[in-house]
Amino acid sequence: MREKTDAPKMDRNDPIPVTVVAGFLGAGKTTLLNHILHSDHGRRIAVLVNDFSAINIDAELISEVSESAINLTNGCICCTIRMDLIGEVLRLADLPEPPEHIVIESSGVADPAGIVRSFFEQEVRQSALLDAIITVVDSELVLELSDEEDRLAQAQILGGDLFVLNKIDLVDEVTLQKVRDWMTDLRPGVPIFETVKCQAPVESILGFGRTRTNRFNSDAKYEFIGLEPHPSFETWTYISETPMAFELLQQVLTHLPKSMVRAKGFIYSNERRDRRLLFQLVGRRATISDEGKWGEIEPQTRLVFIARKGSCNFPAIEKALDACQAKR
Ligand SMILES: [Zn+2]
Fold it and tell me: Is residue 63 over pLDDT 70?
């Protein structure tokens, strides 16, 4: 399989190329990562997944295709757990058989500039070299964001080397053109792949062999000006081992407060106890999909909610969710 790639052979001492997948909450980063891992890339890829809540749903969705996905939880790798990211990258580089490529899924609130900064630390430069920042953009949602979220989405565009403009099936041509114009105004000349479910060409995304000529190479000057803390979000998790009355739960999950920017997780429903249902809320769009049987996984409802700090009454949501538990 490995013979299939015509990328230049890597020297054992070359720094490992690193691809960062960035983009706002719910844009499709996990979907892109799954697409990359499912493709015939022919490389030994290590995956780092940063979900800033305490339970990492994304890593769980990824570990089904890559057993070695590494979780970075309880913080954001562009700021609060920057050192954890550096530590993991150095550890991977020191392995007897280090990965040939590292892909990092950043949290949806991360500013790529903060991640770039970590790769300019002297100790990291010897071991790993940023190849590119891929920013995934939700074409339906990105122009609907309120002030501070919008500023963060702009920072994610400004930090990108390549864009995956996703969910184009959910918008009309006029909206799509508005999003394209917004992106090219912010960051002209950057390639845009327009996709449904992040089906972008993996060779272009991973850009094997591009590392030596990219903007992060050793001669590049990179200035970290205007690096501001991003808006604070808070996460809250709900776990229940009692099966949930599906229709009641659906009512609650489709009537969450507007300030809830993102929610996701698994549902253990009373009506279909053997099926693992996946709930996704992005902006105002809620979906529930059937992910198959639970298999080895213990059936339980595990939901993660993300909202702007102080904007949501989580105890009220907890009460509403508790009321959905099926009577024994
Ligand atoms: Zn951060």
Answer: no
